[in-house]
Write a structure and sequence with these properties.
alpha/beta
Length: 380
């Protein structure tokens, strides 16, 4: 009797990361079920997704919401593994949509694990997409106290333009260092809190019911195919739209805040490795490029690559819940997962720009989104 290929259920599978993970998995012999609600904030009011995976015989698509337990049960029927991507992802938006973020991120994950605890299934492994946001400000070095973990920045510090965190022990200057998985969680937003809750729900439930689990804490993922419609996340999409429209390019704080930008192809490979490797079972693994890049540098690179006529404008504005810096320590990713990033930020931005220029010019929603944040005193 011929052995069937393994099937992976990907929640949020029609999203940016999900489609790229799917392409990688089917190239390596997997069948894939994509479960997605086609959220208008991500996909637009009239979703129009064209992707090579849709015609692949190894792919099945189900439209559904992860909060719909009955549909989720059906989606799990033929699956051997789950990659759980479905989530709301707006850091600032989460601060005034607390119940919604908890329902989609935390409660839906609990429902998933409830099904696996109480129903017949063939799930052997779950890989959860978590976020670098759970670290808050992450790890720093103090000349006097060594490695320290500063608390989230306060409104008073933002108002004073004190952008850089200080040592929590001596209040002196501290210096950025790679953030490892052993860094104590310090969520600075409701979004981050829900991602940490997801981790605990999956990890504890998986151990109780003999299901292998892996948590991938993703840095800032970018690349061709990311949503150009969501004004709450994805500065590359936001910046590229405004550059193409000849609009001003506002940069928060002093522009020196930095992120670890990782290409979606590298992320897709990391998910496949996590799905197939026993060495990372029960582990939390950072996935990034392992290098910080300032927001100002990203903005200038995009302006140059898109032949923009405007330059970035430092505004001194800020959003509550934003972190100053964070970049990943990839030691465990390398030694346990066999992962190392293959696409540099410069090469990745070239690919991103080529794709952006092939897309219809989207409406810009940044000003409206920022006004919404100001009304709720989440942004100044």
């Amino acid at each position: 009797m011929e052995r069937r290929s393994k099937t992976c259920l990907i929640t949020g599978g029609l999203g940016f990361i999900g489609l790229n993970v799917t392409k990688d998995l089917i190239r390596h012999g997997w069948n894939v079920t994509l479960f997605d609600n086609l959220s208008p904030q991500i996909h637009g009011v009239l979703p129009s997704i064209e992707n090579e995976v849709f015609n692949a015989p190894q792919v099945e698509i189900m439209r559904g919401d992860v909060r719909d337990v009955s549909l989720l049960k059906v989606a799990l029927l033929e699956a051997d593994a789950v990659i759980h991507l479905a989530a709301e992802t707006g850091t600032a938006q989460s601060m005034y949509q607390v119940a919604h973020y908890n329902a989609v991120n935390s409660q839906a994950t609990a429902s998933l694990m409830d099904i696996l605890a109480n129903e017949q299934h063939s799930i052997k492994k779950i890989v959860l997409a978590s976020s670098r946001s759970i670290y808050g400000e992450g790890a720093y070095l103090c000349e006097e106290h060594g490695m320290v973990f500063p608390s989230p920045r306060t409104l008073k510090e933002f108002q004073a333009g004190q952008w850089d965190p200080r040592c929590p022990l001596c209040h002196g200057s501290i210096f950025l260092t790679p953030t490892s998985e052993s860094t104590p969680p310090s969520p600075a937003s409701i979004y981050a809190a829900t991602k940490l809750a997801q981790e605990d729900i999956v990890r504890i439930s998986g151990a109780a019911f003999n299901i292998d689990t892996v948590v991938l804490r993703l840095q800032n993922v970018y690349g061709a195919g990311q949503s150009l419609h969501n004004p709450y996340t994805g500065i590359l999409s936001i910046f590229s739209t405004r550059i193409r429209r000849g609009m001003n390019l506002p940069i928060f704080e002093d522009g020196l805040e930095s992120r670890d930008f990782v290409h979606v192809n590298d992320v897709a490979r990391a998910f496949r490795l996590a799905l197939t490797s026993d060495a990372v079972n029960g582990r939390i693994i950072n996935i990034g490029e392992g290098k910080p890049t300032s927001v100002m540098d990203i903005a200038n690179l995009l302006v140059d690559k898109l032949d923009g006529k405007i330059r970035p404008e430092v505004t001194g504005q800020y959003r509550l819940g934003d972190i100053r810096h964070c970049y990943a320590d990839l030691t465990q990713a390398s030694t346990l997962l066999g992962y190392s990033p293959e696409i540099s930020i410069d090469k990745g931005l070239d690919q991103f720009v080529d794709w952006v220029l092939s897309q219809p010019l989207p409406d810009d929603g940044l000003d409206k989104a920022n006004e919404e944040l100001r009304k709720r005193r989440m942004m100044e």
